[in-house]
Fold each of these.
Amino acid sequence: MWVVAQQQIDPGNLARVPGTSFPGHFSKVMLASVILGAVAYWLMQYGVVKNKVMNWVGMALFGVGIILAFAAVPSEDPTALIRFCFSVLAVSGAMGFVVAREPVHAALGFATAVLSSCGVLFMQEAYFVAAATMIVYAGATIIIFLFVLMFAQQTNLRAYDIKLTRPWLAAGIATALVITITWSVADEGEILPIKIDTTRVNSLAAQPLSDNGTPPMPTKDMSGKQVASFVPSKTAGLGRAMYTDYLMAIELAGTILLVATIGAIVLAQRPAEVKS
Amino acid sequence: MWVWLKESWPILWPTLAAIGVILAVVPLLGLYMTFIERKLAAYVQDRIGPNRVGPFGLLQAVADGIKIFLKEQVIPDHVYTTLYFLAPAMSLMTAMFALVVMPFGPVPTDYEGGFRFVVQPGNDIGILFMMAISSLSAYGIIVGGWASNNKYSIYGAIRSCAQFISYEIPLGLSIIGVIAITGSLNIEKIVEAQSGSILDWNVCWQPLALLIFFTAALAETNRLPFDLPECEQELVGGFHTEYSGIKFVLFFLAEYTHIVTVSFLTALLFFGGWHFPGLPNPTGGTTLGMILGLAVLLFKVSMVVLFIILLRWALPRFRFDQLMGLAWKGLIPMGLVHLVGVAIVLSLGLPKHLLILTAALPIAAAYYSSVKFNASMGRWNALESGVRKTSAVSYE
């Protein structure tokens, strides 16, 4: 049952969260830079093009793509410049991750991409998500990758590090995906409000945050019913939302992780010796 | 851009000033910690220690610094150059970066403006941010070990991977108790919650958390009981075998920065930070109060630093299986028990000082292991004498 939050409902205050409004030439510029990036990946990927000069040309094209993307950065906001730098680092790290032949270099590229994404998250004041990403991915997962890589192979590249199986398909899908995402982000639209059962005890939507948090914004959903939509702006609000409104999802995720852990233990166990 | 700079200058300059203080003080502190360490080591080993350069040998640290800068850069043939040079910088950068949210003096929870003793006041996730950054500090060691392209360095790097991943878990578990009862991740608020009498200090009612936190944090600093990535007897120099001169020093500056971080965190989270019974709350605003608070905090921190340095000369190094056993079989179960205790106290509304009962757990564990050790030694002695007897018979 969806119930109205405690605030006065103002029909003019519907949760129409506008998409970021980009300048008009934005989409075309971004499209050009995505395609340039795809071509650059082609040329950089050793094994597709077996020519050092062409690899350098690819790197130059990648640089041109980045400079093109720079044109879309709003000049009046200096923090946008820092965000852009983080984004460039993230994309370059990801490119390095895909292109690098040495597995350790690839892992470090991955780490760069993750950390730079965390930088973008920090710039948008999503502190908790950024810190959690840093701890889980950069601090644990990639270090385990490096651990395994250093154990498994210390010299000599294996065949599967040099040979690509389906580079055309991968690059095509990736380009289509990035173009779609860019298109949908650049298009001004609205983010639908999240439906929260405000009758639940301690629900974030039911009580306005006391210290500096944004109070829940009462809105109408698609069918005309009134629901509370909110953006948890503070870590405390996030915690409250996680353990009241999204309790089921959190518990399910925890259960999946537990099952995975038990599965890993079972898989790693050596078969018991048969007693004769 | 200039307009923006002009407008945001009142917010910008305290940040820049705090960054400046950290950048200026931490390397100096690292330099002098080597001196204190040498002096303490000398006293422990019944020597005098450095006493020639300057009064009481105080300028020895400066002389060392000059020597380091003037040393020749030796770059071995077989290293992967880029990462080889990047590794010490990464190591120091991650160590310094964790200091961003750490208050190094009294900081009021409702910060308004002007200079303050922290780079970013009122960070919502303070302690989590520090954990996130310190989880990255393994990268410097791993990359350095790998880029050295030498089997001892790689062994050091591999050990450091395993050690960092294992000891992050008890570190997190031990802090959760503090966070849960304070109700905030903000370090200033955690200190503010300990502002009452000495009984309000976290150490007085969750000593088990302090024990786990301190052990795990010490493991993250790569100091002696936990210095397996660089142990000289087994791995030459571990991850820094191929590093010399200023590059070597950057690694060690990072290590000393870690010690500073750990000491500050111990003082802030468990020993009441800038509060001391009898002194007024320094965050009220008077200058004298602020200076007194700063002195109290620095005193507590220097005590912890001295304790860490003394530990180096008191404890032998772990074997690798013992290191892993300590984390996975000792600290993590104890941390879980402590967490359950905190949850019970919080959900039933019991007085929080009941948590002190959890301190019985390490005492019981220590007693149990000593009994077991004695028993095994008795068995071993019996076996040994038996072997000697039989061998004496059979060889004659």
Amino acid sequence: MREIGIDALDDMARGAGILGTGGGGDPYVGKLLAREAIRRHGPVTVYDIDEVPADATVVPVSSMGAPTVLLEKLPGGTEELTALRALEAVLGRQATHIVPIEVGGVNSMIPIAAAAQAGLPLVDGDAMGRAFPEAQMVLPTLIGVRNTPMAVADDKGNTLVLDAVSNHWAERIARAACVQMGCQVSCADTVLRGDQLRDGLVPATLTLAEELGRAVRVARAEHADPVAAAVAVLGGVTLFSGKVVDVERRTTGGFARGRARLEGTGTLELDFQNEHLLARRDGAIVATTPDLICVLDTDSGEPVTTEAMRYGLRVTVVGAPCDPRWTTPAGLELAGPRYFGYDCDYLPLTAA
Amino acid sequence: MRAGVDVGPTNTDAAHLADDGSVLATVKVASVPGDPAAGVRAALARLPRRELTHVAVGLRATAASVVRRQGLRKVGVLRIGGAPARAVRPLSGWPPDLREAVSAGYAIVDGGGGLDPEDWAPLDRDAVARFASGVAGRAQAVAVAGLFSPLDGDQEREAAEIVRAELGDLPIALSADLGSIGLLERENATVLDAALSGVAGALADGLAATLAELCPGAAVLVTRGDGTLMSLEHLARHPGLSLGSGPASVLRGAGVLAGLGDAVVADVGARRITVGALAGGFPEEAVGGAEIGGVPVGFRVPSLIRVPVPFDPADLAEAVDRLQPGPGRLPLVVVGGGAESVPQGLHPPHGKAAGAIGAAVSPVGGQYERIVRAPDRSALAQAMEAVAEEARAAAVRAGADPRHVRILEAADTRLAYLPGPFVKLRARAAGPPSRL
């Protein structure tokens, strides 16, 4: 058990941005929300997965929708609690713990704010170990945990409680509702029992985010290489370093696909949708989803999102291994390259 | 014929350019600390008297004012956005001493909009009036930022009228004009605009008076961080846009002198070498825009690496290398007073006055961005045309000649994590300065 205070948030948000693999939304706004909530309600208690009682009711709280809209329409700070209360009402029991659904991006911070407001402890872990775009792309799906009932709340006070025949269907319906509810909503879903955490979560990822953010900050302060520091914490490999010379965006077959070409010593092509998903170096695939493909600003070590990819950026592309459960056949079916419409198989990372 | 002036911390450079862009004369004088207009006067007085269509001036006064926390006005901050905008307070995350220097209190009132017309809520006029009386006597300026105001700035203008009715004629900065998406960033930028209104107003008045006397009939413009220009009226309204403008005009000037649109530029000064890169004739911009003590303010500024002087050649080589797309790809252009101390690279003639020349050759700029729902290509094209028109209008508000404004860049980015066709559109426009 430990506490997350205001001091931890900067590092954690920086690390979460890197773990967002180009997506997940900039944690900056989430950090401000978490800071404000901790300032008002005090620090948040965090438990390791094995400290949580077997009969605990652990609820992931997250925001869904467009991070770009989130930048304009800030969360009011009450939507997460509204969603949580609506979920508790249909569950017939109260949440005992809150947990992030994804550690990558803004959804690492939203649960901290929600936990502070609800006066509940947080679990150190998340259901992805990175960021993914859809609600069924979580480890709980692999162990048969349903993401419904799912509660969705908007800033106006509208609440939707959803039941669906599958985790995919819940995603489809909730995403459509999200558009009607202003393109940015808060969710509580994918409820886990305490004894399901070991199989349903990637452990200690909030700690990982904080260590990652700290390593980058310290390296910068010491005029060392922040990207190398990030690679060391991630246990990853540097795939390429160069400059973005071309970015192409198009929508084909329902997929909004982007491709960036980087030049340095050789070339690297990066395919992205909401996150960076595929990297080809000099024509050969070197990294694929579900492994983490993190694009970092070469000078600062700050993450570069898919939406921010543009000509002229100097970036280093880093590959880091995902949680091994994602590379099982069922895991790859949920979040492997073919799910995202790429005609290739998962290729494990190899040392550069 | 036109003139460019670059007021640096140590020296002020000036240049006369013919209409075809050729350099006719340059001059360097010592800057007058704390009085940029005096430096401008001294430099221009040393050049032959010629009939000028416009004079463009590069300044560092606003940046210095923020860094030193000097001359900043106390700002009352009004956010229009109701409940959804309450969780994060205005000025959150600002360095405490800067917030202390700037803050005169804030209010968050109902109103503001969303992506759809039905998302708009009426402005709580009474709450605006209460805000105004609450900051009366403390606020020397007011900043107004409304949710989704770049889509429709009416509520910000309405609120400004109410504030003016309560508090009389004080500077009121509105966020809608900045045209960027991201409420906190836009609000921070607007607060900065309001805080700098005193410095900027005095600067604009000083320059106007000096130049009316020295170059009667010439339009007067100042440089911006994105490498374009704006009028003095625009500077007085949006002084934050001038952050980063010094290096931006040096980069542009170096490119023009070397005849290159893409290059790495090293500006060798007395105390440091500033290295930046040009892409398509404009400075490559820092990711995320300007920051002040870690606070994003969104203004577009060049991405720079600074090497202290006296310098280690290895440090300079590394800085240049970091700005290259690949090993040795783009030419290096070396300018500035100390350019001789760097043997490698191109040393174009008049490189000592690159900042002044960059100011003189730059167009007046404007930009705009908007999130739209565009179900098909024709809807997207139509929306893009509307956004381009807003960017052209922004350039004209900044002082561009409406007959000659063109679009420099038009980009569409599909929003992540949303089904259906939500797209962020962004356009940049520029044109020559409007003649007086």
Amino acid sequence: MDLQINVHHLTRVEGHGNIVIDMQSGQLKKAQLEIVEPPRFFEAMLKGRNFHEAAIITSRICGICSLGHQMTSLKATEAALGLAISEQTLKLRKILVHGATFQSNVLHALFLAAPDFLNVGSVFPLINTHKEVVLAALRLKRLANEIGELISGRAVHPISCVPGGFTKLPTNEELAALREKLVTQAIPDASFVVEVVASLAGAIPDFVRETEYISVYSPQEYGLYDGQICSSDSGLHPVDDYLRVTNEFIVPHSTSKHARFNRSSYFVGALARFNNSSALLSPLAKDVAARLGLQAPNYNPYMNTVAQVVEVAHCVEDTIRLIDELLATGIKAEKPNQEPTRYGRGMATTEVPRGILFHDYTYNRQGQIEKANCIIPTGQNLANIDDDMKKLVPEIIGEGKAAITKKLEMLVRAYDPCISCSVHLLDVQFDE
Amino acid sequence: MSKPKVAFFDFTSCEGCQLNKLNFENDFLDMLEHVDIVEFREAMDDKADEYDIAFIEGSISTPTCIERIHDIRRRAKVLVALGQCACSGGVNAMKNLHQPDWVREEVYGNEKYRFPSIPAQPVSAVVKVDYEVRGCPMSAPEYLHIFKSLVMGRKPEIFDHAVCVECKLKENECVLDKGMFCLGPVTRAGCEAICPGNGQYCTGCRGPISNLNLEGAVEMLREHGFSETEARKRLHLFSANELV
């Protein structure tokens, strides 16, 4: 049989991509996600820039993961220049990463992915049919953004995070007020959202493809802010080995580079984090995973959205714990530590909502960037998405073009791709 | 009266300005009572043939972008550039300062010929732009002001004084006096001096005021201990198209 699908500029994803499927006489000739987002050339823009500017510039790679880019950028700069940070800065940064993660996960799971499970084209019809859940999701998102606004000055393109610390600190009273909202509002809203997602679980396609799962891993905590690189195939690798793990290569159908490590492709994102670190989730998040039927290891890429919901619970609960620790000692007035003790190369990794992110800078003795490299999660997932499509299309070929197209769109959406980041989107093309 | 049809489009950008708009969680449902969102690829499947107001995010940086923006302009009664990438080219325009081949080679190596790219331009370089919401990211209060004005059929108020003025009104400690770098004296206001308010320096993300004295700005920064090269480099961060 012949089948041709071409979804041009896939909707409800960040950035521009096309899904192209070409099957001729039952043979799959092509199954790929084409990335057509215009290239941005950030690595070239960073050359010659002062160390104060690196995080300001790289945050602009992506509006959705701007906080994650800043964190990774700051850590790479601090590693290159030998800048130590305080325990207080570390805790405030971890809270910021939690806020950005649950903001993005709520946005994706409830506003971008949920319409597929309810057979509507966007979140807008749900405002009439499912108003309470839309309101709960909006409140969660607002609170996550308030975390960013309080600690970093602004949720999109944060202001006060700088190498060595913060230019402005929250007060104890502000942190206590935030804690109160997390307890009285975010926990009940998150629990309500979990029940709604549990009721939709039957609409999640049943598809399994075991692959390699790569994430940040830390023995002390669920890996998000910092840790080593963990592969489900080969175990732990130091951050400095990131190039050996990512092996970026250029393919003609994508302005974003692809990546592979122990196999032809690997998976990054919430499901990879869950598979590698689920034992370290907070107690509430473990309950949510059990309620949603998610157990590690899980090999269904569509379950990435469910793993994101589990992480919402983890981030909310762990933020409360971190605020308690900060309030126990009280916020101390601190100036950022910006006196370099060395100049050279610094590499860093952080989990952003869509997966593992790397920044790598080399500074000269004037504190200016000589060489920069950023490897973004969506780029790392592209080869894995192509491999999923190659297995999925023959399995569902009897379901008809409309159903196949929808499942492919849902598959790409499940990865929550951030294409501006990777370049850095989506179009499905069936050749009949 | 029927509700105005509003559409959002994204070009070369980080989509942070569109995200910022979804961040009006408290006003979001109220806004929807006054407009029909007919096209917004990042959030919905629907597409429309014409729009009363088209909001454009991002700069024009590939041949395909030029075709798309002409098509949108033909369908739109009012066109608003959203954020600095759309208003001036923003950070994307930094690549215009380098030889195009070098930039592509730096990122894609020998495969550079596969990825055509043209200098990053503001939307106004290709089609008529009716209103601009500046800033990286766009200023949320300014966007709400322009959005409400257009929906109510009023002409929005546009600022053309320096961030310095807003900063003084906020009674912030002067950033330059603290020994830090700052572009507040020459950057267009409308952000309520949010960066100095958070202890940071003004990065010039809203572009220069219209009566900019560029050499005076460089001289002022030199007097505060920053080299001419450093001053110019930082002035170019968000305004490479306007200042070079």
Amino acid sequence: MTPARDSGAGPNVLLGTRIRERRMAQDRRQSDVARAVGISPAYLNLIEHNRRPVSAELLEKLAAELQITPEELSEGREEVRIAALREAAAHPVAGDSPPELEQLAEFLARYPGWSELLIAQSRRAASLERQLVDMSDRMTQDPYLLTTMHEVLSAVTSVRSTAAILVEDGEVAPEWRDRFHANLHQDSQRLSVTAQSLVAYLDSFEAEGTAASPQEEVEAWLADGADPAIQLSSDAARQMAAGIGQRLARDRQMLPDQALLDGLRADRDVVALAARLDLPVDLVMRRIVDLQPEGFAGAGLLVCDASGMLTLRRAAKGFALPRPGDSCALWPLFQALAAPQVALAHHVVTTEGRAFATISHSSRRQPLGLHGPWLTEATMLMIPLDGPAPDDALPVGPACRICPRSDCVARREPSILVPQGPRTGL
Amino acid sequence: MQPDILMIEDEPNIAEAVRFILSRDGWQVDLHVDGAGGVEAISTRRPRLVILDLMLPNRSGAEILLDLRQAPDASLAATPVLMLTARGDTEAAEQADAVLAKPFDNDELRRLVRRLIRA
């Protein structure tokens, strides 16, 4: 079991103490809570006195039993709120006048009500931004929607012109009039069927978590642990998942769990570890994301080919991936394409203010021999960092269309999230 | 017989309405219902005006227009084209002589046809 993180900032904020305070605030007996989460009262007593570590699994159970989020229990309510305020402050809408970060704790203490409101509004805005992005993606890229809208437009055009002939063009011969009436009937039926299916389709936008494409379905399946028992919905998704599963199996054979854990205990430098084990750097990075060992919790992986097309996307915790086919030109992954066999280390910070350590590496191979084409593949490992972004962190986005960094030098197209025009202060 | 207008449109009810409207004004209208073979149809029938739908099966109106404008025969390449589009598709119809957004007003269609054939 993986031990849950504790801030360790002082006895008043220790995890066990917080569990005890929360339990007592709810007027619950130690034995009742212990029984509910499946441990002995004596063990809970040791935990509450900070004399035993708490596994992530047990933390989840305790949090659920005490009706609080694991994060609030683990990091403390105040720390979670400070992190939420810091996230709100990092939004580019702050522009040239960023809030006074050094006074966050004081602001929270003096104005708890205003702080709650600010956090709630910031989360609501983030949720609406996600919905807007999703709607925009569908409106601009969805082939079903484009085809259906074309169908509607064609039927409406026919109805309008035909009706105008019957109403405005004076005498129309009976055979033509009958023909146009039949056309109107046909087009009105077509419109009604298309409109119904369009409404049903637009309603499905509300269903959160619906995998929209085979790639997104596979990504969701990977994020859930790549359980082979889960049946994917399309042939394309099953084929992609099979390919990924085979590669994972080969990787695990070449670098078993224990060998990776032993290796990381001796050396946490991924590139040095790969050299010592005489294995490709990208394989070691894939295994780290597969196993998620201590120190790499929440790590994600992006893989692209020489065209920049992402061929594998396993999102790091807190890194919002854009729709398949979209990317940010500033991701270090793409720099690695230009420097094969050299590992590049960068810090990056997202538009939400979340920081990540990244290691990018690309390799080339010639599967058809000496005179065949070079195939280049780049891999980027992303490890979430706690706290504020390091000073050297490169501001990156998800993709131009949904990125609010209006003065980015790599911008390819306008953003739908912020008004266009000169702005500063990323 | 050389038609005044060749309409390339795959929606039969739109084609029927347009043909009726323009025939009443005295124009001879021929129809081609597929994107494939569009340029060949223009080349063979030599109309005075082409009414071209942007969204066609097999070959888009934009591709047909591009091929037409690059035809070695200068008089063929200069055939006036009225492009029917959805609003917002105007970029794809840049080389057309006029653009009419769907759904359109019948009088606006008549006016544009008169202008393009007399030009």
